[in-house]
C-alpha cells in the first residue's frame, strides 16, 4: 500500500517529464544529415552535421542563405564560414548582430558530402522556448517595468503606496485581474477582432472587457471567499483606473504574442507593479518620519522618490537573459 | 450638487489654473511623466485629450437623463472609448510621424482618471454648454501642464524648443531620461505649492 501511494505521488513528476520531452522533441530538423543548429553568440550561428561536408562547399558563404523566419525576403549576409576541427561543425559569421529573440532560418541547397548529395535543408535556429518565455516575464517585470520605465499606472501607484499592507493588497488584486483580462482579450483579439478585421474596435473592446472582468471577480470573490473579498475588494474598483491594465492587451495585440507568451507578459506586468508598489510603500513609510520641507510634503516628494527608483531601474536596461 | 453657477470664462480659467489636472488635481500623471520630453508631444497629446474631454462631456451632458445611475460608470467608459477611437484613427491618418511617438498614450486616454472624474463630477449634473466650457478648460489645463513640463525638459535636456536649436548646447542630458520626468513633475508640484503658501501668507498678513 505504501508503494502505491509513492507511485501515485510520483505520477505528476512523470507527466511533467513527458511534457518536457514532448516540447523538446518538437523541434524538427528536416534533413537527417544535420544534427543540430543554434546560436553561438550574437554574430554567429553554429550548425553540426552528421558527417563532414565538402570543404569547398562549406567555405563559400553564398551556399548558406540566412534570413529571419518571419521575414524571408531580407537575406542576412554571411560574412565568413569557419569549420570546426572535426570538420563536422560549421560556424556562420555575420557582420552585424542578429536579433536573437527571433527564429532564423538557414537555407542550404543540396549539401555535398564525400561525393554524395545529402539533399537540401531549411534549418530553423532559435533559442530555447522556456528561456524565451522566462525572458518575457523578467523583461516585463524588471527591464521594462511598467511603472518605472514606461511610466504607466502612476495614479494608482502614487495613491496606494502609502502603506505596505495596502500596496500588497493592490498589487495582488491587480496581478490577478490583469492575468485574467489579458488572457480573455488575447483570445478575443486573435479569434474575433483580427479575423473579422475589427482592429479599430480594440480600445472599446479591451476597456469593456476589463470592466467586465473586474465586475466578475468582484461578484465571484464576494460569494466564494468573503474573507478575501473584505481584504481585497476595495482595490478592485481602482484597477480600472490603472492604465497598465489597458496597455498590456494593446501590447499583446501589436506584438502578436501567442497564449503562453501573453500569459507571461501579463504575469510580469502584474508582478512588476506589485514589486514597484512594495518598494515605494517601504520607502514612503520611512518618509513619514523624515523631515521634509513643507512645500514638498505629500505628492512632490513621492514623485522625487519615484524618480530615484526609476534611475535605479535604468540599471536593468540592456540586460539580456538567455 | 446643483448645476454650476460659474460663468463660462470662469470655468475655463479654473480648469487651467485653480483646478489644473496635472499640478493641482494630480490626475493622469502617466503622460505628464512619459511624454514630456518635448513640447510637440505635449501639444499633440493635449489636443487629443482636449478633444476627448470636450466631446465626451457634451455627450454625457446631453444623454444624462437617460442613463440609469447604476450603469453610469460603464456608460462613461464606453463613451470615452468611442471618442478615443475617433481621435486615434484621425491622428493616425493625418499626422502619422508624430503619432508613432504618442500612439500608445492616445489609446490610453481611455484609462485617464481626469476624464472619467470630470464626467462624474461635472457633466452628469450640468447643461451641454457648461460641460462644453468645462471640457475646454480641463483640456487646455492639461495641455498647459504638458507644455510647461515639456518646455523645461526639452530646453534643459536637449537645448531645443519645438525642435529648433535655441541654446546650441545640451545643458543637462539627464532631463531627457525617463527618470527625470518624475523629478520634474515633483519639483513643479512643489513650486505650485510654494506659490500657494506665499499667496496665503500674504492674504493673512493683509487681514
Describe the model:
The complex is a heterodimer of chains A (about 325) and B (about 210). Chain A is α+β, with helices and mostly antiparallel strands and about 325 residues long. Chain A has helices at about 1-25, 55-60, 130-145, 155-160, 165-195, 200-225, 225-240, 245-255, 260-290, 300-315, and strands at about 35-40, 45-50, 65-70, 70-75, 80-85, 90-95, 105-110, 110-115, 115, 120-125. In chain A, the strands form three sheets. A four-stranded antiparallel beta sheet of chain A has the order 1-2-6-5, with no helix packed on it. Chain A has a four-stranded antiparallel beta sheet with strand order 4-3-7-10, with no helix packed on it. In chain A, strand 8 and strand 9 form a beta hairpin. The longest helix of chain A has about 30 residues, at about 260-290. Chain A is elongated. The two termini of chain A are about 45 Å apart. The two termini of chain B are about 30 Å apart. Chain B is mostly helical and about 210 residues long. In chain B, helix 1 (about 10-15) runs parallel beside helix 7 (about 130-160) and helix 4 runs antiparallel to helix 5 (about 95-110). Chain B has one domain (about 10-205). In chain B, about 70% of the residues lie in helices and about 0% in strands. Chain B has helices spanning about 10-15, 30-35, 40-65, 70-95, 95-110, 115-125, 130-160, 180-205; strands spanning about 160, 165. Chain B is globular and about 60 Å long. The chains are: A alpha+beta (about 325), B mainly alpha (about 210). The interface of A and B includes residues 151, 200, 245 and 293 of A.
